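Q: Could you fold this chain for me?
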Amino acid sequence: MDSDWNLKGCRRDDPSRFRSAEDVVRTIHEVGFLSLFATEIPGFSVEEHTFAWDWWSDRPETDPWVWRMEIAAREDIAYGKFFDRKAGFISKPWFGAFANYRRDGYDYEGMYEDGKMKGTAKRILDTLELDGDAVGLEMMSGELRKKSAVQKGFDNVLIDLQMQSFLLISGFRQKKNRRGIEYGWHLPSFMTPETKWGYDAVNSVSEPPEKSLERIEEQVRRFYPSAGEKEIRKVLGIRR
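A: Sure. Below is the predicted structure, expressed as structure tokens.
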């Protein structure tokens, strides 16, 4: 990829420009969540607060595409396709609210039994060998595809699970050849939020799902007051 992809970047001298991964992290913690790429909510992305030509530049200190890998590996932030099926970040304190709303009070087995989850999605989660607290393995995408035997629509099912808050991208790794030497693109690894943080940290929100949604919407309006109801609903994946 390169910056010919019509990125909605800012000027280099823009005072709101993110100049480092730590700038991004501070905003994630301030707001609670942030999209990587531009959405219908103005300003709600890393893309809009970075210089377009810094993307995919092979300069780790200024490249937001590299920053996302650093942030994904952090203990205090979740990374995944959480916003209108686009990549973004949710801080640990806010993830429970997203899980409470998007899971609608279900665990994944209950969601499957009630016809709210595809069989292929359940197979992917089963492959991660989750225990009763949804704690299980971390697995690279290629290995997960192979072991789950989900081929058709695999990538879309992964996105569905991230949007439902059952899965996140825990980091990025390269493949290794027979001599143990890394090569090629950095590929995502997946795990459940419970594997990253523990069951209680993800499932301790006791309010009704709609109340969690209200709090998330209020936070969006607080920091992005120009966002309309239609835009907020689309980006957050609101079902009503």
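A (continued): The chain has eleven helices and six strands.
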